[in-house]
Specification:
12 helices, about 280 residues, alpha+beta, 2 domains, 5-stranded antiparallel β-sheet, 5 strands, Cro/C1-type_HTH, 434 Repressor (Amino-terminal Domain), Beta-Lactamase
């Protein structure tokens, strides 16, 4: 347990009028008040036996600090509170994800440390439903390496390649012969932009071995891509709002102009939700 610090804090439950953290003080008191101390296993053998009210002393005991240190937090005093301590407070007070975020932002101005990402096999039902309900426009989901995760029916009709096993937007656009026929002004409107996107992505996530392997594959396989990569230094993060000129079998090989829209699903921010609409400009 941390040595008790000399903190001139107000009595338990009394807000500190000189503090800049009055709002988080109120929230912490409310969050503590809703926890029944009798339901906390770690306090089961505490003496004296706890009643229904979880006290500041109880929270200090649960988080491994002095009562004065926890009282300073609840009073809204500016201290060097560590992330591990704030996480223990969140656990002791049984805070939700949103409440933990509020605690961190109020106390130290940053988000809680991210937990290691768990493997994600299934799309959330809401994301899958949103994709399926796009019946007017082509739409698809891609991951950080531009693998096609899912596509709606119209996307498969416009671009049958998305239905092939292992479909990848970058690989098709930059290496497949049909892309140079279907995406008009291929080098200027597609190749240069997609390679500029790969520059950003490969520098943003150097640990992504799949992405780095994709870049090597594209540069090794195509002389035009190597030339553009070596001579140019443009960087582009996404193609939201860009206009494409297409000539697809779906449209009887007549030229069409479309706009791409890129969204990040909040349930799966590792994915891009992209849909394509007619260009009215």
């Amino acid at each position: 347990m941390r040595r008790a610090d000399r903190v001139n804090a107000p009595p338990d439950g009394v807000p500190d009028g000189t503090s800049h953290g009055e709002s988080i003080s109120r929230l912490l008191r409310a969050w503590r008040a809703r926890v029944d101390a009798r339901t906390v296993p770690e306090l089961r053998w505490a003496q004296p036996r706890p009643g229904p009210r979880l006290s500041q002393a109880h929270v200090a005991r649960l988080t491994g600090v002095s009562e004065g240190w926890y009282r300073a937090l609840e009073a809204g005093r500016r201290q060097d509170f560590s992330e591990s301590f704030l996480l223990r407070v969140a656990e002791a007070l049984r805070l939700s994800e949103a409440e933990t975020l509020t605690l961190f932002l109020a106390v130290c101005g940053r988000r809680p440390p991210a937990e290691p990402a768990a493997p994600r096999e299934e799309l959330p039902a809401g994301v899958r439903a949103l994709l399926a309900q796009q019946v007017s426009y082509p739409a698809y989901l891609s991951d950080g390496a531009w693998n096609i995760v899912a596509a709606n029916t119209l996307m498969g009709e416009w671009f049958p390649w998305v239905l092939r096993p292992g479909a990848n937007l970058m690989r098709w656009t930059l290496l497949h012969p049909e892309a140079r026929e279907q995406m008009l002004d291929w080098e200027d409107s597609s190749a240069r932009v997609y390679l500029a996107m790969l520059r950003v992505a490969s520098n943003s996530d150097p640990a992504n071995t799949e992405l780095r392997s994709l870049v090597r594959e594209i540069l090794a396989a195509d002389a035009d891509c190597r030339r553009i990569w070596e001579r140019e230094s443009d960087v582009v993060e996404h193609r939201d709002g860009d206009v494409f000129r297409l000539r697809l079998p779906y449209h009887g090989n007549e030229e069409v102009r479309v706009t791409s829209h890129v969204l990040l699903p909040i349930q799966r921010p590792d994915l891009r939700f992209v849909f394509i609409t007619p260009y009215d400009g």
